[in-house]
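tool=predict chain=A
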Amino acid sequence: MGLFWKVFDKVIDVMAALAGVILVCITGAVCYTIGMRFLLRQTTIWIIPMTEYALLWIVFLGTTWLLRERGHITTDVIYVHLNEKTKHTLDSLMFIIGGLTCAAMVFLGVVHVCQCIAGGVTDVRAITVPKTAVFIIIPIGSILLTFQFFRMAWSRFIDIRMGK
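tool=predict ok
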């Protein structure tokens, strides 16, 4: 199982790095289109829709890494007043709920992508893009999030059993 988690961690590291690269690219693209509009009174019409798609991809590429690194925002108003065992129990419960929610997103994402494939659905705006290419990242990112949530829940469960 250790090999699985090593590979899993590498995959989410690569996905997070890819999210960073995409972010840099769309930042450059938006700056380019603003410059073109200002200097030449012309704009590049495909940049805005591609930026929207890229933002969706960034979220699902980077969220699992952020969860693993515990970079999400938490509210500690009640949490700081709890003892360690209660904190671990509450963490386990939250991780299980998160995992189940992401598992539902995997299912719904696969259903939606299959419907897009079956119907040949495209997004027709400045450019025509198959919706499958836009939405395929949702089930991929969600399955990784599901694994990470359950991994963290299991870790907290072990902590509880060991009395930590």
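The chain has a mean pLDDT of 91. The longest helix spans residues 2-40.
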